[in-house]
Amino acid sequence: MAVQKSRVTPSRRGQRRSHDALTAKQLSTDPTSGEIHLRHHITADGYYRGKKVITTKSSAVQEDLSVAPAAFDAAG
């Protein structure tokens, strides 16, 4: 088993642990949707820096719902 060469003082231990503190996440607000998100990440709606970069499932479902009633009226 390993044995330490000498006892580590509380101040030395504190100096070693000085960089271990947790920091708060940096959050941003999207200018288009106003949604809060992590910096340099897209929002849950698929926006990055005010532009739509990907289509999400929620937006695709909303588009389908807006088209579906018109298709149903024509068919039926």
UniProtKB/TrEMBL annotation:
<dbReference type="Pfam" id="PF01783">
    <property type="entry name" value="Ribosomal_L32p"/>
</dbReference>
<dbReference type="InterPro" id="IPR044957">
    <property type="entry name" value="Ribosomal_bL32_bact"/>
</dbReference>
<feature type="region of interest" description="Disordered">
    <location>
        <begin position="1"/>
        <end position="35"/>
    </location>
</feature>
<keyword id="KW-0689">Ribosomal protein</keyword>
<dbReference type="InterPro" id="IPR011332">
    <property type="entry name" value="Ribosomal_zn-bd"/>
</dbReference>
<dbReference type="InterPro" id="IPR002677">
    <property type="entry name" value="Ribosomal_bL32"/>
</dbReference>
<protein>
    <recommendedName>
        <fullName>Large ribosomal subunit protein bL32</fullName>
    </recommendedName>
</protein>
<keyword id="KW-0687">Ribonucleoprotein</keyword>
<comment type="similarity">
    <text>Belongs to the bacterial ribosomal protein bL32 family.</text>
</comment>
<dbReference type="GO" id="GO:0015934">
    <property type="term" value="C:large ribosomal subunit"/>
</dbReference>
<dbReference type="GO" id="GO:0006412">
    <property type="term" value="P:translation"/>
</dbReference>
<dbReference type="GO" id="GO:0003735">
    <property type="term" value="F:structural constituent of ribosome"/>
</dbReference>
